[in-house]
Known about the structure:
By secondary structure, this protein is of the alpha/beta class. The protein folds into two domains: about 1-185 and about 300-395, Zn peptidases (Aminopeptidase, 3-Layer(aba) Sandwich); about 190-300, 2-Layer Sandwich (Alpha-Beta Plaits), CATH 3.30.70.360. It has ten helices and 16 strands. It has helices at about 1-10, 15-25, 35-45, 105-125, 145-150, 210-230, 270-290, 310-320, 340-345, 380-395; strands at about 50-55, 60-65, 75-80, 130-135, 165-175, 180, 185, 190-195, 200, 235-245, 250-255, 255-265, 290-300, 305, 325-330, 350-355. The chain has an eight-stranded mixed beta sheet, with helices on both faces. Helix 4 (about 105-125) packs across helix 10 (about 380-395), helix 6 (about 210-230) packs antiparallel against helix 7 (about 270-290) and helix 8 packs across helix 10 (about 380-395). The protein is elongated.
Amino acid sequence: MIESIKSLSRQFAADTVATRRHLHAHPELSFQEHQTARYVADQLRAIGLTPQEGVANTGVVALIEGTKTPSGRVVGLRADMDALPIREANDVPYKSTVEGVMHACGHDAHTASLLSTARILHTLRDEFSGTVKLVFQPAEEKAPGGASLMIKDGVLENPAPVSMLGQHVAPNIQAGKIGFREGMYMASTDELYLTVRGKGGHGAMPDTLIDPVLIASHIIVAMQQVISRNRPPASPSVLSFGRFIADGVTNVIPNEVTIEGTFRCMNEQWREEGLRRMKKLAEGMAEAMGGTCEFERVTGYPFLKNHPELTRRTRSATEAYMGQENVVDLDLWMAGEDFAFYSQVVDSCFYRLGTRNESRGIVSGVHTPTFDIDETALDIGPGLMAWLAVEELGRL
């Protein structure tokens, strides 16, 4: 079976690249993937499948049923479809044609790869049993996350997958290699918006003011103590503030200061406790200094956990497909990913497809204007995912 899958993956490689380049040239932002969804549905119909459109508005789902000995097992395979509000700086034939929008996170590659996985599995449907559920998901890049909306729309039901697999490009891993990590992998993501109010005025007369700049500065420093003194030692956490606006001048103190930041961790209980403590501290400190603080949390994604046994199985299957020397370990990563919603409901494995090629200058990270991939990875990605699905379906 491995050799058949590898052969088909190579056979469909030109289609995979062409699809990826088409999607790259025509990116769409989160919740706006209307043309992309139509394109995906048309491609699935051309393969011989019957796609379900309009799941979570722009999501597409399709089933491939193996015809070998009947089996009730179902495996879900997910690809995300949305792009980012970034102006592309690459000079390539497939450069984005949409001003200020770019596939800077590889979702074009994910979608193209899963379409070719569908081609492989449909071709080999008489050689496996069970059902593969293909999930083409919108809006990974924008809260509340397309995964959460697809789950609400029933993507994990009728039929219900026993496991979910997700494949994501990795510009820090050499093309030709695959990365895995068991257990905790990626962080929960919450956005924090604070508005600190006081009484502004002349900077030379601080005794007549309630200085929101000073209050806000104390709050930022003190909130770090919530992480250092209250966080469970074995639970990674990050609190970062990237925006601090005090719209005064050298000798004018404003009436209010706005602060924006992010809180990330890998423990849902600590996540809620940490946010509760930060809110209480910020509001209390502002009040103690004569001002007020409005603390707003925009809830993001949960932390992503790779089911240990499933991840060990998929890693072993990948070693059989790729060779042990081409499988690497992943570090914890404090970035967020809405595949985490699936991982909180069903056994899941989210692994990385290496796309780096230093000799060709393909080294830029995701979410940058110069991000690109070594497309030789697209010779590997579709076949590997097909193999992992077949192996998982065949497990007793």
